[in-house]
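Study the following:
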Amino acid sequence: MQIQDRYDCAKCKAVRMLCGRNFCPLLRQQIAMEKLEKQLVNLELVGSSSSVFVGSQNYPKLNVGALSSGEYVDYEPERMFGKSLQEIVDTSVQLFRNKDGMRVNEAMQPSKHLAQVQEVAMSEGNVFSDTEFKKKPKMEVSFSGVHQPFGPSGTISKYNLESNPRVSQKVEKVVDDDLMSYDQMTLMHDKNVSVHTIQKVMSVGLLGVNKKLVPTRWSITATDDTIAKNLLEQIRQENEIGEYLLFSSEYIGNKFQIMLIPGKWSFDVIECMGPDSLWAGSSDKFVTDYEGFKARTAYADNVAGGYYAARLPVTEYLAKKNKQATAIVVRRIYGSYHTPVGVWQVRENVRNGMRSKPEKFNTLDEMLKKVDKEIGLNWKPHSEVLKTVRSREVMKKYFV
């Protein structure tokens, strides 16, 4: 059942669940906002900061600040994976977004406030903080298909850290080195620094020679893209895998089938939504982007950030195995994924699949039959890479 308009909300009154959900989103948001208002005392929020956020509107002047709460909030995606969708949303909306207008080049000579936000970005855990807003924050929740959700936002008049951040030497050393941002990002990934931390330090202007603030939504995709491109330089030189491998993962209404096929590197993501999905309408919908052996130059406009988030774990696996392959990722989005929580769940979902033991198949058709059963929608006509693979398989039979 599809989400109805507000007229149906008036008829429903959180009783009949006409939107198809098993809860009322309007009522739940109201309860959450009332709880958050109690954390504010005379526009002051005393608690801890767990992450940072740089907005993208009005570039090159951006709203920059920490994400803070009166309660302890663990905002690390790698640790959030495994929680229910509602737990993720309930946790994330507890965070107040602190805003302070800054120009992108202020990272070269950071103010006291920006320097403190940078410390939060580098920290391995939460940092005790004291925030004072100029006026009551806007009491609403922000959702995005790219970044994680967060709660109310407001312009600050004061922000102070009340404890010392715990900064990993691996992060501190790389940030202090006078290197290009590409090299710093790949170095940190090689040292097992979390992707989320790399995204944060990039966003607050700690990377590169000509340091700049980078909107959070841009830094997320840039980090996934940069690390994968570095790994692909190695992968393209490796031998091809010799068997058909299928990896699977399902989490919070998102099912992934990841196929590795003998052949040169190419990559395809097909997102599939049936009528049960909130975004599909009355018929099946398919969204896809792909790349061939050479590096992709144009942005993946269709799948967007999810494309790069899905590609990174596949390249991590192949680089570790010293192999290359043709890769196809099929994502089924079910109606139970009623609230977007960001592309981190794509990355961690695919990573979870790549950590599992793959199913092995003797032929491509055997593997496709299994994927069709799992996905339940006719995705194959929408895969450009699969068309190439099928042509290659025909040629192989003809010449062998």
In short: The two ends are 51 Å apart (CA to CA). The chain has three domains: 6-161, 169-230, 239-399.
